[in-house]
Amino acid sequence: MLSHQSSAAEIMAELAERADPTRIAEMARVGIRTDTAIGLSNRQLQQLARAVGRDHGRAFALWETPVREARVLALLTLEPARLTPEEMFRLAGDFASWEIVDTAADIFVEARLDPALIASFAADEREFVRRTAFAMIAGAAVHCKQEPAATFLAFLPLIEHHAGDERNFVKKAVNWALRNIGMRNKACHEAALGLADKLAASDNRTRRWVGRDAVKYLTDPKRRARLKA
């Protein structure tokens, strides 16, 4: 049975024991990259993460394997307080799927919500590294309840700058970040909707898509009714 004392090798053996290739087709249907998958669900991986606990060094040992489940488990068992910007970029350089990015983004935000770091991710031309920036913004807009509105309003120029990136996993993350900022409170909503309207009127197809989708989302009456002051 796995415990906090379990080694990376023991965890890998347990993953292999639980592997269920029949799950892989379903993963592929929801857009999960499966070329290195062995067939464990995220719920199973979360249970395993609780069993083995956080261990920074062991997490990086798991990351070094190519197995999708090992890498998800690595992210879930990192120690955010020990995670450095250099380590974040090291991990991000290996990102190859939206699922891994979005899992990592929450861990990165838990480590630090650093606008300069996010801007550095956004400046990187690699699709999944750039997605990391906007997945971090989107996640933080929901989970960082005590963060002032000014933090998120300051991300709007970054969103505007990259709204024309036509790559699927970037444009969707940019849109996601804009929508989530707009739902934080009324002040953020007004500013985000203003940017969405501006993008929706663009001559650029991708910027127009990002803007129109955000306008539709942010003007939904039921969502607007939930906004707080």
UniProtKB/TrEMBL annotation:
Gene3D superfamilies named in the record: 1.25.10.90
SUPFAM superfamilies the record matches: ARM repeat
Pfam families tied to this protein: DNA_alkylation
Organism domain of life: Bacteria
PANTHER family assigned to the protein according to its UniProt record, in alphabetical order: DNA ALKYLATION REPAIR PROTEIN
Name recorded for this polypeptide: DNA alkylation repair protein
Organism this protein belongs to: Martelella endophytica
Lineage: Bacteria, Pseudomonadati, Pseudomonadota, Alphaproteobacteria, Hyphomicrobiales
